[in-house]
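To whoever is on call:

I kicked off a structure prediction for a single chain this morning and the downstream step that reads the tokens threw a length-mismatch warning. I double-checked the sequence; it's 132 residues and nothing unusual in it as far as I can see. Pasting both halves so you can look.
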Amino acid sequence: MKTKEELNRISGIIVDAAMEVHREFGPGLLERVYEVALAEELSMRGVEARRQVAVPVTYKGKALDEDAYRIDLLVEDEVVVELKTVAELLPIHEAQLNTDLRLSKKCLGLLINFNVTLLKDGLRRRVLNFPS
């Protein structure tokens, strides 16, 4: 597991990369376009980002199909990134990020809504049990 400083550095790179994607495209595209572009921008910066990562889910002790739950981006195998293109972020979107973090057993997540004029207005950061 990475240190708090390393996770903060990675999240800073993700936010900067998302801002670059948003500068290039602006709001109005489908979520998938931003997902592909953000993964590419991170790759160009030397940061590993895997798209549509399957997360194991069990129900009453039984493993569900591996495609039952996916997260949009997993960066450096540490930071969960949930992407949206909605008019406004709602509590349900933050609940989804919390679920992503819980199921993936990660401690840092970013919720990024690209459907805003200023990307800073569409960013949310969530920390669960940060390492020392």
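Update from on-call: the warning came from a stale cache, not from the record. Cleared it. Sanity check on the structure: The two ends are 10 Å apart (CA to CA).
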